[in-house]
Amino acid sequence: MDIVFNCPHCGLSLEVDQDAAGQQFDCPTCQKMVTVPAVAAVPIKTTLVGNAGPTPSPIEEKRMAVPVSQKPVESLIQKPNKSLEMAAKESKPGIRVTTIRHSDCKEAGKDKFDEVVSDFLNKIGDQNLVSITPINYSYLDNGSQKLFTDFGVMVIYRG
Ligand SMILES: [Zn+2]
């Protein structure tokens, strides 16, 4: 088996017999003293490149093995949806209270508070209305996680 290596002075590729390892001789091109390496230079380089190559890191493997958490999106957009119609249509007579909150009357960016209150008052009828009381309340916005102050009305009526 031959030892293949490059002359450290001129870079010439040299090929000598394995038995010449450790011996010194003059480079045929640059005439400078060259020492034959114990192990072939070129194969060593190849081996080094192979070692430095991408070896699977245990950390990366672990990270890839972690399953992607799939939280149900529905829980984020849940919305209290109290049916005002249901409250107005209850048949049992008596004094009833319904609170209409401004923040519950926004649909697709449209403020329908006045409309909702008007509809509700028309439904219960003029003669059944006892009182309307303005209220203030705070609520936590699901999207921004901020506390907002809003208003609404508490309607007391006979129904
Ligand atoms: Zn040389």
Descriptive account of the structure:
With 159 residues, this protein is an alpha+beta fold. It has two domains: 2-56, no CATH class; 77-158, no CATH class. It has four helices and nine strands; from the N terminus they run ββββαααβββαββ. Strands 5-9-8 form a three-stranded antiparallel sheet, with helices on one face. A two-stranded antiparallel sheet has the order 1-2. A hairpin with a 6-residue loop joins β1 (2-6) and β2 (13-17). It is rod-shaped. The N and C termini lie far apart (106 Å). Residues 7, 9-10, 12, 27, 29-30, 32 line the site of zinc ion.
Describe the structure concisely for a colleague.
The protein is α+β, with helices and mostly antiparallel strands and 159 residues long. Helix content is 24%, strand content 32%. The strands form 4 sheets. A 3-stranded antiparallel beta sheet has the order 5-9-8, covered by helices on one side. Strands 1-2 form a two-stranded antiparallel ribbon. Strands 3-4 form a two-stranded antiparallel sheet.
Keywords:
3-stranded antiparallel beta sheet, 24% helix, single chain, 9 strands, alpha+beta, 159 residues, binds zinc ion, 2 domains, two-stranded antiparallel sheet
Please indicate the percent range of residues in DSSP E strands (runs of 2 or more).
25-35%
- Mean pLDDT value: 78
Q: Major sheet, described briefly? A: 3 strands, antiparallel
> Which runs of at least 5 residues are low in confidence (pLDDT < 50)?
44-50
* Whole-number tally of structural domains: 2
Query: Care to count the β-strands?
Result: 9
Percent range of helical residues: 10-25%
Could you give the order of strands across the largest sheet? Answer: 5-9-8
The Rg value, from CA coordinates, equals: 43 Å
Number of helices: 4
- Described by its quaternary structure, the protein is single chain
Please report the distance between the alpha carbons of the first and last residues: 106 Å
Q: What spatial form do the alpha-carbon principal axes imply?
A: rod-shaped
Bound molecule types? zinc ion
